């Protein structure tokens, strides 16, 4: 979820650039990272894996399931999800505010009756995708009240309506906009100032408050007991990065990834490093982050569309190709998977950038080439539901990606299997072979073989010792 605030760069640059906090035996930590291997944070290194992540919903999932059956939709595709992907990103699982079918305005964390189904159906979906591992979409920057702006239930986080709002940041607009409720309490009954961006769709939680942190940890542990192994943290620009590392550690997290949607490519590595800060002598567990730098590069090369709720899906304009730009920019060393491959989660589109929100959607005609890129390169690739399965308005899984009529679904599945077969991991070595306006080519060396991926209007020739796996629109893949 993206909510742009003009003040963020001034506030968050200071937050992200703050001095690293040491704790306990970690006081002499070396926070330098190796740009080739991605190994960093002496106390913690993300696991090496050839696995791929899957986003198990689109923005249309709620709209297509008025009867609250999305958990059943995931379960019905569970066998294929489980055999193909390693991690599966579920949408927000908690009860949310009125009109918020997608769950990004959480109301009661521990109430699992949502627009996607009930708790039993959720647990069935978790079981159905095994051996894939589920990740919960965690919205802890903000909450909405039950009967007023800021009264919380399940858990209360110490809030007492019209008396105690210490769980809510003192800078939250609710204190100005609800004069007879939140605005009626003294400053001593309000939380500390926000440690990140303000979010005016809900009440900003005060993560400096121990009771808030304890409530979050208890909830994450509850989700762990249901089978979730980790988290996709929503809107992490809304609070200090150090709390992400703290919650990871306290909930014994296996995998986490943060959504830091910014245009400044330098801020995401800083955020990752600062999730390694410590509080209360707890040795933190740093988080991965979505690679928005690579997403931006893909859009710059292939063309992006902001088409106002996907209207182009129903018009000829949608299938009109956008002219491609310089393919050499895919070789940029500024991409997160090049800087910190172990911590990068790459993607083509998600529920915000693409789907029916379509804030920053990639040109549909180049989805095949974009997936050929991320699924053969370092980082952990994430595949979007609408590109892989049907069942939603924005599904394009049957689009053709080569002259033989290969479907996007089959293209993605084959690339996932090739990645596993050659054991190409999130930290595999990459060698740029060519990068200019017409051609990008790179050799990626896995543990059981290597591939050369070429993207462009003029494709790199198959090297000696390699065989052509197949070619498609603006891409070719050679394997050894």
Give an overview of the whole structure.
There is one protein chain. This protein has 480 residues and is α/β, with parallel strands linked by helices. The protein has helices at 8-16, 70-76, 78-84, 119-128, 174-177, 210-226, 242-250, 267-274, 292-302, 336-339, 367-374, 385-388, 408-421; strands at 53-55, 87-89, 95-96, 106-108, 133-138, 142-143, 203-204, 230-233, 255-258, 288-290, 304-305, 344-347, 361-362, 380-384, 429-435, 439-445, 450-456, 467-472, 475-479. The chain is 23% helix and 16% strand. Strands 1-2-5-8-9-10-12-14 form an 8-stranded parallel beta barrel. Strands 15-16-17-19-18 form a 5-stranded antiparallel sheet, covered by helices on one side. Helix 2 (70-76) packs parallel to helix 4 (119-128) and helix 11 runs parallel beside helix 13. It starts with 7 loop residues before the first helix and ends with a strand. Mean pLDDT is 88; it is low at 2-22 and 24-39.
How would you concisely characterize the structure shown here?
With 480 residues, the protein is of the alpha/beta class. It has helices at residues 8-16, 70-76, 78-84, 119-128, 174-177, 210-226, 242-250, 267-274, 292-302, 336-339, 367-374, 385-388, 408-421; strands at 53-55, 87-89, 95-96, 106-108, 133-138, 142-143, 203-204, 230-233, 255-258, 288-290, 304-305, 344-347, 361-362, 380-384, 429-435, 439-445, 450-456, 467-472, 475-479. The radius of gyration is 22 Å and the shape is elongated.
């Amino acid at each position: 979820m993206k909510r742009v605030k003009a003040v963020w760069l001034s506030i968050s640059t200071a937050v992200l650039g703050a001095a690293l906090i040491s704790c306990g035996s970690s006081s002499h930590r070396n926070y330098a990272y190796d740009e080739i291997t991605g190994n960093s944070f002496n106390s913690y290194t993300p696991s090496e894996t050839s696995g791929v992540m899957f986003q198990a919903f689109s923005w249309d999932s709620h709209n297509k399931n008025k009867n609250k059956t999305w958990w059943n939709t995931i379960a019905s595709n569970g066998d294929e999800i489980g055999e193909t992907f390693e991690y599966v990103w579920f949408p927000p699982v908690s009860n949310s505010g009125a009109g918020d079918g997608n769950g990004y305005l959480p109301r009661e964390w521990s109430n699992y009756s949502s627009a996607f189904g009930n708790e039993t159906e959720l647990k069935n979906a978790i079981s159905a995708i095994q051996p894939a591992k589920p990740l919960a979409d965690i919205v802890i920057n903000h909450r909405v009240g039950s009967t007023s702006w800021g009264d919380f239930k399940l858990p209360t986080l110490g809030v007492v309506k019209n008396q105690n709002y210490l769980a809510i940041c003192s800078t939250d607009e609710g204190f100005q906009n609800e004069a007879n409720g939140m605005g009626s309490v003294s400053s001593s009954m309000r939380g500390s100032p926000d440690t990140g961006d303000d979010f005016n769709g809900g009440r900003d939680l005060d993560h400096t408050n121990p009771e808030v942190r304890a409530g979050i940890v208890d909830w994450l542990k509850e989700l762990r007991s249901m089978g979730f192994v980790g988290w996709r943290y929503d809107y992490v620009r809304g609070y200090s990065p150090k709390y992400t590392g703290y919650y990871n550690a306290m909930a014994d997290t296996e995998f986490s990834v943060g959504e830091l949607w910014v245009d400044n490519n330098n801020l995401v590595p800083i955020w990752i490093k600062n999730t390694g800060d410590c509080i209360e002598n707890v040795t933190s567990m740093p988080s991965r982050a979505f690679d928005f730098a690579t997403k931006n590069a893909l859009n710059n090369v292939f063309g992006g569309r902001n088409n106002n709720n996907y209207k182009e899906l129903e018009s000829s304009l949608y299938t009109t190709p956008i002219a491609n730009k310089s393919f050499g920019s895919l070789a940029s060393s500024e991409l997160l998977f090049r800087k910190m491959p172990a911590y990068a989660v790459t993607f083509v589109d998600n529920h915000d950038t693409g789907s029916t929100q379509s804030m920053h959607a990639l040109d549909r005609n180049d989805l095949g080439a974009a997936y050929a890129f991320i699924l053969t390169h370092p980082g952990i690739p994430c595949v979007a539901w609408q590109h892989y399965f049907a069942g939603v308005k924005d599904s394009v899984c049957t689009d053709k990606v080569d002259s033989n009529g290969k479907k996007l679904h089959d293209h993605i599945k084959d690339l996932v299997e090739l990645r596993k077969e050659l054991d190409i991991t999130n930290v595999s070595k990459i060698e740029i072979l060519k990068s200019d306006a017409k051609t990008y080519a790179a050799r990626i060396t896995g543990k059981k073989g290597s591939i050369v991926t070429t993207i462009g209007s003029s494709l790199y020739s198959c090297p000696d010792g390699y065989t052509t796996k197949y070619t498609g629109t603006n891409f070719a893949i050679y394997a050894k």
